[in-house]
């Protein structure tokens, strides 16, 4: 569709000879959680799914390999693949590097290089984890919302930016928040398309556009364009909310939301806040899509270098990101549901990594949780 991501079925997958997936483990716990998702992919491949998997470094691992957080070979592989699965980037040992060589730059650059402008971050509370949420169970029970974050514009990419020295010798840092009409329009269309798709499931059909239009000229334009796009979707209810109020409402009454549509920096913050509604950021998957549904899939959490190598990280967000890959890039809704069902069954069996375990519950490691999901997937 000319306005953005086409969420409709893309055709008969059986005609595809291979589904090529670039796997970028990254840093910290990235390799550990990716290893568990790879178990799921290998199980599906043994069943006959035509998968072609190829690994490459990114982030700190990319810098270690070639002095670049996004090596040319990694970007080329990503561009030539149908989808990308990424772990996480970052580590204490890279903090002293110049900004352009920091691991996070690899992530920003691959998003920009693949034109992945639509970031889908679902926040779903599994019934088994109701007590793991930081909010009362009656506030979050049944939670199922989608945060749509614009990913390639805003203050993260705006120019000019930098640090300058003033006439009095004092240093001053500055960044520029920028959005064009076309950038706002294309992500707004995606938001309304998602709301239409979800309306068939939950009957809501609502988009809440989050901005700071009472202060920022950029947000005033954002609100104007979103309002215009909404006219093309008369069955979807549009509301507007300032970002500070939205942050409060997410913890006061999160179930009032269906689809939250917002810009890059606001979406970054709100989606991390929403993670605590679900019990742990270790449960939140994400998809970053281009106009043709090619996507990069990754957990919402970071590289957590403090727990790397300890076999305690939660791999479920990464595994659930695979489900999103099957749904949005490969149009394999059946496999997406199988993966999500396998995660639910593992939770129903009382299996918990440390981040989602209640007091007194036994805890299992990263490897064991991956094995459990594969076992339930195959049964």
What report would you give on this structure?
With 379 residues, this protein is α/β, with parallel strands linked by helices. The chain is built from 12 helices and 12 strands. Helix 1 crosses helix 10 (316-328) and helix 8 runs parallel beside helix 9. The chain has 2 domains: 1-117 and 284-379, Isopropylmalate Dehydrogenase (3-Layer(aba) Sandwich), CATH 3.40.718; 134-278, Isopropylmalate Dehydrogenase. Strands 2-1-3-12-11-4-5-10-8-9 form a 10-stranded mixed sheet, with helices on both faces. A two-stranded antiparallel sheet has the order 6-7.
What is the topology?
Elements lengths: L18 E8 L3 H17 L4 E5 L4 H7 L5 H9 L2 E6 L14 H11 L4 E7 L12 H4 L3 E7 L11 E4 L5 E4 L6 H22 L3 E6 L5 H14 L6 E6 H10 L6 E4 L1 H12 L9 E5 L5 E5 L16 H13 L4 H16 L17 H13 L1
Parallel strand pairs: 1-2, 1-3, 3-12, 5-10, 8-9, 8-10
Antiparallel strand pairs: 4-5, 4-11, 6-7, 11-12
Helix pairs in contact: 1-10, 1-12, 6-7, 8-9, 10-11, 11-12
- Series of H and E elements: EHEHHEHEHEEEHEHEHEHEEHHH
How many structural domains? 2
Separation of the first and last Cα atoms? 38 Å
CATH superfamily of the largest domain: Isopropylmalate Dehydrogenase
Physical arrangement of strands within the biggest beta sheet: 2-1-3-12-11-4-5-10-8-9
How much helical structure, as a percent, in the residues?
A: 25-40%
CATH class of the largest domain: Alpha Beta
The largest β sheet comes out as:
10 strands, mixed
Oligomeric state of shown chains: single chain
Mean pLDDT: 92
Runs with pLDDT <50, length 5+?
7-16
SSE class:
alpha/beta
Overall body shape: globular
**Helix count from the secondary structure assignment:** 12
* Total beta strands: 12
Q: Rg, please?
A: 20 Å
